[in-house]
Amino acid sequence: MSGDPARHPPPPSRTPTSYDVAQRAGVSQSAVSRCFRPGGSIAPETRARVLKAARELGYQPNAIASGLKAKRSNLVAVLISNLTNLYYPEVLAGLTRQLNARDNRVLLFALETEDEVDAALDQVWRYRVDGAIVAARLSAPQLRAFQRHRVPVVLYNRWSDGSDPVSSVCCDSPGGERMLVDRLLAAGHRRFGLIAGPEDNTVGRSRIEAARTRLEQAGLTPVVAGGSFDHDSGAQGFRRLMMANDGAIDAVICANDLMAIGAIDAAREDFGLDVPRDVSVVGFDGVGPAAWASYRLTTVRQPVNRMTEAAVGMLLERVADPDLPPEVRTLTGTLITGASARLG
C-alpha cells in the first residue's frame, strides 16, 4: 500500500471507493472500513489520514452495502396513525432522533386510520427492516406475522389485542384520566360530558372508558359525544353535549388536547361561556398549543422523551438478541394544572 497516493487517483467517470481511499491514505481497505464503522478500532493518526483522503476524493461509505455485509438493513419501520393529532409529530421526531443517534434510519408508514395496518405491513416485509415500532393497533394475526418474518416489534402507546405477549411502551392513560376526574370531582363538578376519539383508536377509547368508569363509581352518568381527535370534532362534540343536556354541563373531559381546544373555542364563541368559571375543560397529551396563553389547557403531559427512548432501546436490544423475552413498560404522565379547569 506504500507509494505516492497521487499516482492512483480514481477515474473521474466513477464514484470513489474504499479501495481508492486506502490507496490515497496508504492504508488497508479494512482500516478504511473500521474508520467508518461505529465503534471501529483504529489509531487516531490513521483515522485522520483516512478522513483526509476521503474528503479529497469525495468518498462516502455505502450504508446499504455495509448493512448487507453485516446482514442488517439499519432500517426501522415506524407505523404511526392519526397524524392530525399534534402529539404524533413530536413522537415521530423523538423516534427519529433516537434511532439516528444509534446509526439507524426510519422507514415511515403514515396511516390515516388504524385499519390500514395490513396494507402497510405488506410494504414493511419487502424492505427487510431490522425491526418496527408501531403506534397503531395490531391484531393477533398481525403480531404473528412479525414473528413469522422474524422482525422484532415494539408497540408505542399501544398494547397487544391478543394473548401472545409483545413488547410495548405505554403512558398510563387510564391512570391519568382517573387523576383528572378525581380532581374535577373534588372541585364540585357533577354534570360531566366526555368527548371521545375515533372508534378504532385504542388509546382514546381507554381514556374515555377510564373516565366514565370513575364517574360511574361516583354515582354519576356522563354524556358522551364522539370525536376524531381534531379541533372541529372537539367543537362539534361540545355543541352536542350542550344540546343533549340542555346546557347543563359543568365539566368536559376530552380524549386529547386538540379536541379540548376545539371545545374551549365552541364554549366561548357559540355559547358565550367563561372557561373555567362556567365550564371546565381538560384534555390529554400536553401538546405545544395547549400551553398557548389563550388556552392554558389543563391536561396530562405524556413523557414523550422517555417513551421514545425506551421504545428505541427495547427494540434495538431485541434486534441484537432476538431471544430476549417481551417487556412492557408503563410510564406515568404529568398533570399540567392550566387555566381551563377548576380543580380540587
How many runs of DSSP E, i.e. beta strands?
Answer: 12
Q: Based on helices, strands and strand pairing, what is the structural class?
A: alpha/beta
Biggest beta sheet summary: 6 strands, parallel
The CATH superfamily of the largest domain appears as Response regulator
Shape label: elongated
CATH topology of the largest domain: Rossmann fold
Share of helix, binned? 40-55%
- Separation of the first and last Cα atoms: 77 Å
Number of helices: 12
User: What is the architecture of the largest domain at the second tier of CATH?
Assistant: 3-Layer(aba) Sandwich
CATH class of the largest domain: Alpha Beta
Instruction: Provide the domain count.
Output: 3
Determine Rg (CA atoms, Å).
Answer: 26 Å
